[in-house]
Amino acid sequence: MPIPDINSQYTHQQEDMSQEEEPRGRKPQSMVDQEKQDYLDFIVPRLQITGKILQLTEEVIQEQANYISRYIDFLNKYINYQRKVSTLRFERATLIKYVKKLRFLNDFLYTYNADVNMITEPLQKLVRPLGSFFIRYLEIIDLLNYYLTQSLRNETISKTLNQDLVLSQECIAMADKTYRVYVKFVQWFIESSSSVTTGDLTMEIVQFTRKCAVEDGIDLGETDDVLLQEVQLVTSSEEFEDLLEKWQQVLHFQCADLDDTFNDNVKHWSELFDKKKEK
Q1: Domain presence at residue 175
Q2: Which of 111, 114, 163, 235 is least surrounded by Cβ atoms within 10 Å, i.e. has the fewest?
Q3: 21: buried, middle or exposed (CB in 10 Å: 19+, 13-18, 0-12)?
């Protein structure tokens, strides 16, 4: 499912204020800074937690839990097939460690209950702690994806002398796409209600992608890379509700696509070992 431009309908029209010393289509930095300050002074205090935001947040948290669960299920099946290859015992132990870590993180998501007493509280009181936790688990997924597609893949091919027990290219591509979609959601979740993100709310992959794009001379306003697209600030709790609901749907369908791809890869391994049994 393609990622829709969720923010497009809320992009606010701006006056055409061209200045010769500024790149075409970009605002003077002083104007950008003033807009951010105005947002912090006048809009942020009005962004409050609503009952609907709490409900949608619980649904979004469920999608995060489902995402982690897809990895746990997939890794458990992968580990079972690795048991059939004695030379992969160290690699298997590493995957078991990842499974334990993901289960620990997932326990928080499955047991999370929104506090109704937070209704009318500032939106940032909900966003900041959850955003920090989302970043924490996504960093684990990032390391896991690298291990699955690089280190483990190379070691498996080297020790088994074939590519039977590694992730397919389709699986690798889907894992990367899904990761980027979930990263973009977390970026939106954090940045759409505050233009200031520091400390535990900064996302390494977003910063690194932007840095590389700037060094390569990529126009950030024209790129198709979802991680380089700017997040539009919301102006009301109702707008945040609407966008959060749309994001929940995007995450749901993307996770389903990942699950289908993981299952296809597991089916391939199952058929492979079934053939070996017949021999």
Answers
A1: yes
A2: 111
A3: exposed
